[in-house]
Input
Amino acid sequence: MRNFALGITIGVVLMLSLSGLVDSFPSRSYAPPIAQSLKPVPTWVNQLNCVEPNIETKAQIDLALEILEKTEHVSHITIGAYKYLARRPFQDTKSGTASVCSLDRTTQREILSALRRRNYFRGAIVHLNPILVLRRLGPFDADIQAMLERTAFAENAVGRPSAAEAPRYVHPNEFDLRPLARSTLAEFGSISAELADRAMAEIDTTTLGTSAAQLAVAGNAEGALEKTERIFSNLLEEHQGAIPRDIRDRMYELAYAISYGGDASQKHLSPIIGLLDRKILSAAPPFGLVELSPARMCDVLEHIGGEIAAERALKPPCDRDPRLYAS
Output
């Protein structure tokens, strides 16, 4: 009987696919990894405790470096090397799986040298994975900071995708690395007053604007926290009922911006708490979108800290493990 039911289910799915009805489901009903990488999200969000790299992980890092050093042109194998160096690998430990900690300074300099050899510091970054590599390297070199600044404030969209970086579900117009560069600069924290003021003037409800908010708050631009809170609150008022995914993403990015304000952020939690009392639309492929609690904001409250955040953390959905319900 179970096999019969399974056969019926598979048959229905195949019929829907052949008839084109699957395309009638809400578009972008899930966020593919490549699209997720483009979003201005801090690296501390939902990150596991890290461990030091073991012998196997070190060998993999060396192999990725060797590929970059011995190849000249962008190809699938160089993209794979960039991807490996850009994302923290995982290792099996006695207590389970854990991510690997930051790279040691020697490895950082070797990666930076490989990027220089490939001429990635001549203009704005034009591929996704190299900028993710810079994010993992951190602000230890002036060239990294300068490259990110050029990318963050380029006049036009930056992000020419290579063949291996341009899956069919990411529209070329969405391949803009400027928000990611701005978010990375905000996380680095070494922001000049001039840069923070420039970002302050560009805060709005687009991805470019929400990442500008992160940069302005992190750079202590005057009035940045207040402006970010006001825009966030207005979005909440404008969207009653379940919050659409694109608006949810902008709200999340504004919440991350508030989190960059240090202790001062504790006075600007109102829209974050307001969002926790609402429902957001989240992906449940292949069925479309479902209403869930925005539990990811529990991580933000924990990151900001303070009495108000601690009090709200005792209520749903934060009284459960946020990582089980984050959306």
Notes: The first helix runs from residue 2 to 19. Residues 30-190 form one domain.
